[in-house]
Design a protein that fits this description.
two-stranded antiparallel sheet; two-stranded antiparallel ribbon; globular
C-alpha cells in the first residue's frame, strides 16, 4: 500500500484498527445538492446540509442507504457496513 502525501489542508482522518485504510469523516457515496458545489472533500456536516437537510446515497439513489439506514452526514461514517472512504481507489 502506498501512502498519499499530506497537505496543509488535509482533513482529519483516522486509521481503522484492522484495515490499515485511512477513513474520511463521511462515506464517499453521501450526496446532497450542496455536495456538487464543493471544491474539496467534505469534512463537516454543514458542507452537505442546506436548509432542506436532504441527503441521499448515490448507491441507492434514495434517502436510505444499502444497509436500510438514513443517509445523513452524522450517520454515514465508518461505523456502517456500506461505508466507503474517499481514500479508497
Amino acid at each position: 500500500m502506498t501512502s498519499k502525501p499530506e497537505t496543509a489542508t488535509a482533513p482529519p482522518v483516522a486509521e481503522t484498527p484492522n484495515s490499515g485504510l485511512l477513513q474520511s469523516p463521511y462515506c464517499r457515496e453521501l450526496r446532497s445538492k450542496k455536495y456538487f458545489f464543493l471544491q474539496e472533500m467534505p469534512t463537516e456536516a454543514h458542507q452537505y446540509l442546506d436548509t432542506t437537510g436532504v441527503c441521499w446515497c448515490s448507491k441507492t439513489m434514495q434517502v436510505i442507504g444499502p444497509d436500510g439506514e438514513r443517509a445523513l452526514p452524522r450517520q454515514c461514517n465508518a461505523s456502517r457496513p456500506c461505508y466507503r472512504s474517499f481514500f479508497e481507489e
